[in-house]
Amino acid sequence: MKQQRLLSLDAFRGLTVAGMILVNNPGDWAHIYPPLEHAPWNGWTPTDLIFPFFLFIVGVSITFALSGKEGDRMAVGKIVKRSLTLFLLGLFLNFFPRFDIMTVRIPGVLQRIALVYLVCSLLYLKTTPRQQLYILASILIGYWLLMTVVPVPGIGYANLEPTTNLAAWLDRVIITPAHVYKATKVWDPEGLLSTLPAVGTGMLGLLTGTWLRSDRPATDKAAWLFAAGSGLTLGGIVWDSFFPINKALWTSSYVLLAGGLAMLGLALSYWLIDVKHYRRGVLPFVAFGVNAITVFFLSGLIPRMMSLIKVTGAGGLPQGLKEYLYQTFIAPPFADPKNASLAGALTFVLIWFVILWLMYRKNVIIKV
């Protein structure tokens, strides 16, 4: 058990990454079904669970990748190198295609993954599971107190509003408005302070991975994961009443809710795939899972490259190749623009599945 790769973990990671690609690449951003959009502020949708699921999986994966390397000094260097690579890949996506250093967004999804991977990997090597549990509790309670008790400079009181909360203030001071997410202008959903509880999401994965790697019977591990996941989910719902579930702020209640649901999803996958050996329909998700970072990076880069290629569209007007293909071949059969937009996203996922399936069959795994 301790030496083998969990097929359920690869499948769960693949399902999560496929979800990322689906919600990030609609055919038409103006027409999207509500479950495929983020909640405007407080609350959550299925889309809001995708990123924390991935960070949770990062934590679980660390326990399998770094087990037995606690005293290996070279392991720390490799961790730092991989974190830097992920951060720079994310920064490159933000730079492309303008490469304007004066306005480039510095935070981002890959950047947050890099930071969470770095901190969680070092914690795994240097601390015990009991210490990790104490650190996790301190992060969640400490972040709650920071956001709800500490007065915001220039505002005078603690609050959780979009532009006046403590995390937004810190982004404006350190990152500056020129380098945050352009849609929000003065704060970033992957900003500095909210990265702290995001580390907590990764730590939930660490504790889960340690549990899965234990010598306990597989049925006991699955049962206790279901119980822990249910408890965390309930805890997030209760905490929501006084520290609202909010992805942009990555609130502590959001950590518990998303972490609990991720734990339930992995427990179900583990029970079906690794305990009961149910494998039908699993391999397509495994194909996504083993090249997760590669497909996420390229699925963000290639559409931008296609948009730079100008072709003559309807009415003789120039348009990007991606939009042209969507408007010419995907949208026309659909009367409802939301169905057409969803079909565009599903087509994109299907194209990537074909590519990743061929890579999987040929055992091509690109490690970042």
UniProtKB/TrEMBL annotation:
UniProt source species: Spirosoma utsteinense
Q: What is the lineage of its organism?
A: Bacteria, Pseudomonadati, Bacteroidota, Cytophagia, Cytophagales
Where does the Heparan-alpha-glucosaminide N-acetyltransferase catalytic domain lie?
Answer: 5-148
**Record Pfam families:** HGSNAT_cat
Under the heading PANTHER family, the entry gives: LD22376P
- This protein's superkingdom? Bacteria
Q: Does the keyword Membrane apply?
A: yes
Which InterPro entries does UniProt cross-reference here?
HGSNAT_cat (IPR012429)
Key words, A-Z: Acyltransferase, Membrane, Transferase, Transmembrane, Transmembrane helix
Q: Name one GO molecular function term.
A: acyltransferase activity
Q: Mind telling me what this protein is named?
A: Acyltransferase
